[in-house]
Amino acid sequence: MSVEPHSTAALHNEGHFVIPGTGKKRLSLKLGFSFFLFGLINNVLYVIILSAALDLVPPSTPKGIIAFCNIAPALIVKLGWPYFLKGRIRYARRIVACCTLSFIGMLVVAFHESLYSRLLGICFASFSSGLGEMTFLQLSTTYSRSVGGRSVGYFASGTGAAGIVGAFMWWELRGLGVSTGVGISAILPFILPLAYFFLLPRPAAFMHQSSSTSYTLVPADDLETEIDDDLSAQDDVESRVEPKVTVRLSAADKWRLVKPMLLKYMLPLFCVYTLEYTINQGIAPTLLFPVPSHGLLSKIIHSTRDYYPLWQLVYQTTVFFSRSSISLGLKTLPAHLLPAPAIIQFVILLLLVFESAVGLLPEDREAGSIFLIFILISIEGVCGGLAYVNVFYCINQEQPDPASTHNPDVIKQEREFKIGSIGFADSSGILLASILAVPTEMELCRAQVARGKYLCQGL
Questions:
Q1: pLDDT at residue 445 above 80?
Q2: pTM
Q3: Which of 142-146, 200-204, 218-222 has the lowest mean pLDDT?
Q4: Most C-beta atoms within 10 A of its C-beta, which of 46, 89, 160, 326?
Q5: Short-list 242, 265, 384, 286, CA closest to 335
């Protein structure tokens, strides 16, 4: 394969090669914005549905059924789709399908008042969200590793922003009523195919361009790495153009790829999601105090029901910033430290359980307890966000199996499968947490009542 002379380095200056800079900056901005939009729009409907749970079902219906319908279909997709689907991924068709399913699901939720119809619509949207997340992460592997790693970072940042944007959107839309508010949100999925077809640069666009008015000095060693990455992307592009024998990963191939990831990636991600959603759904609702009469908190907290949204806002904000760590240029966690966020979250869970049931500080120091909870939930959000973005980044950056290096099509499918197969770890953790959260909340409320604190009974 030939590479144009100037792209490998016609210019040389004291161990540095000169490569174009302006064009790649523009492409990087378009890539980053595209993947940010993919993460934001794909996850924002999930957040809107959870935020609207009180308005979507009758008061007598357990709100947990909304959470279940909002996660179970996504789990089914992540658990089954990568393992049973064979052959080449058709990204355009998948993204259009995700858009269509989300649109139909939200319309069903908006314009059908029947409980079962709304639950069906939520299941459609959940199925689409699960398929979309898997698809966009797999799409990042079609780029060279340097570009693909940034794509994962921007996508994770978008998913983090979805928590804040979705909650804010529903806060603004709920005044219009369920039908109008959810109906307006149904147009959001159309951003996905628009961004894919008209904004996202294709992998071939990241080859060093032949003409540019601005050049950047790059060390020779770094350039060799970039060229290797770009050549792998070039091979990927050409493999899609040249007619070749169809390649399909067998069940044995997939098990060979999954086995090393079980303890290295899946278990840490599963533990992080189980712990943080148990905290958010089972412990945080019991972290209640009397309404403050003075100070900054008195302007935010007007009833005991305001504490839970406050904890969720703190969590969502810190998740957003930690999921944005790679796109902000911060260093990634090394693979051997991926279990650390789960260990820290386990300690936080124990501390918050103790605070809820017994109280870490005396009852006359409520301000200190509120500040302590604020710090602990902030650390919880940081750990959750770091676990998510770093696990998927590490998978994206893994080197191909030496046995597969002779076939670019096999390498491509293996990279897509590995990053797609990991997603069921987080969804299964959320599902387990939703089961654990109900008895956890009930037992903590009983413990509070036993020591004379009755706030949880008044919600």
A1: yes
A2: 0.83
A3: 218-222
A4: 160
A5: 265
pLDDT (tens digit per residue) in 266-286: 999 999 999 999 999 889 989
- Buried-state track 85-114, b at ≥16 Cβ within 10 A, e below 16: eeeebebeebbebbbebbbbbbbbbbeeee
Return the residue matching tokens 């972290």. 287
% the chain with pLDDT above 70? 84
Return the pLDDT at 87: 77
Q: Are strands 12-13 and 16-20 parallel, antiparallel or unpaired?
A: antiparallel
Q: What is the pLDDT of residues 217-228, one digit of tens each?
A: 333 333 333 434
Report the largest interatomic distance among the alpha carbons of the chain, rounded to a whole angstrom: 79
pLDDT of 291 above 90: no
Residues 73-85 have pLDDT tens digits of 999 999 888 888 8
Determine the residue type at 204. A
Residue 359 Cα to chain centre, angstroms: 33
Q: At what angle do helices 115-140 and 366-397 cross, to 10 degrees?
A: 50
Q: What is the 3-state secondary structure (H, E, C) of the chain?
A: CCCCHHHHHCCEECCEEEEECHHHHHHHHHHHHHHHHHHHHHHHHHHHHHHCHHHHCCCCCCCHHHHHHHHHHHHHHHHHHHHHCCCCCCHHHHHHHHHHHHHHHHHHHHHCCCHHHHHHHHHHHHHHHHHHHHHHHHHHCCCCHHHHHHHHHHHHHHHHHHHHHHHHHHHHHHHHCHHHHHHHHCCHHHHHHHHHHHCCCCHHHHCCCCCCCCEEEEEHHHHHHHHHHHHHHHHHHHHHHCCCCCCCCCHHHHHHHHCCHHHHHHHHHHHHHHHHHHHHHHHHHHCCCCCCCCCCHHHHCCCHHHHHHHHHHHHHHHHHHHHCCCCCCCCCCCHHHCCHHHHHHHHHHHHHHHHHHCCCCCCCCHHHHHHHHHHHHHHHHHHHHHHHHHHHHHHHHCCCCHHHCCCHHHHHHHHHHHHHHCCHHHHHHHHHHHHHHHHHHHHHHHHHHHCCCCHHHHC
CA-CA distances (angstroms) from residue 383 to 159, 213, 273, 315?
Answer: 15, 43, 10, 10
